[in-house]
Design the sequence.
């Protein structure tokens, strides 16, 4: 797995934001002086991923100048668009058929009968391609304590002067009874 302080690998993937499909190339926001928060999950409708992405949405990170939030999963951009609509997610959702996950070293060999999907992982890529934060979890269903949202929050707050930003996560809200 790529570690903090290492150089982030570049990649290009199809994605969707606001219902509009596009090609997302990491070099573009980095070259424009923006950091990128990469949020990997094997599938979008996973309860842990949903809780975390909704916490990011509620924290307003997608509105911070100089930060882009990209969520990556094995899902198609059509499934991602439906997911974004259902949970009112204002960030880009990218379809990773295993390339970016492989570059970052967070790819399952097999998960739930699927080969090569991303593990749950988070990377904050700075404007100089440095990895400012790295986290990964082997169990996609594990409700992490503390959550990766809580772990990356101080890094986001420090880089984007968002000291008043409050982060909370409720895994139980998205766990089936």
Sequence:
């Amino acid at each position: 797995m790529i570690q903090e302080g290492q150089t982030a690998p570049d990649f290009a993937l199809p994605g969707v934001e606001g219902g509009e499909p596009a090609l997302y190339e990491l070099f573009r926001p980095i070259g424009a002086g923006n950091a990128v928060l990469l949020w990997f999950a094997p599938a979008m409708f996973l309860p842990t991923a949903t809780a975390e992405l909704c916490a990011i949405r509620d924290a307003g990170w997608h509105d911070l100048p100089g930060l882009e939030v990209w969520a990556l999963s094995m899902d198609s951009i059509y499934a991602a668009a439906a997911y974004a609509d259902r949970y009112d997610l204002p960030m880009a959702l990218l379809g990773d058929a295993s390339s970016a996950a492989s570059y970052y070293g967070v790819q399952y060999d097999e998960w739930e009968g699927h080969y090569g999907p991303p593990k749950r992982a988070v990377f904050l890529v700075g404007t100089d391609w440095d990895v400012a934060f790295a986290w990964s979890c082997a169990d996609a269903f594990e409700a992490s304590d503390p959550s990766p949202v809580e772990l990356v929050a101080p890094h986001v707050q420090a880089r984007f002067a968002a000291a008043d930003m409050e982060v909370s996560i409720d895994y139980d809200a998205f766990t089936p009874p």
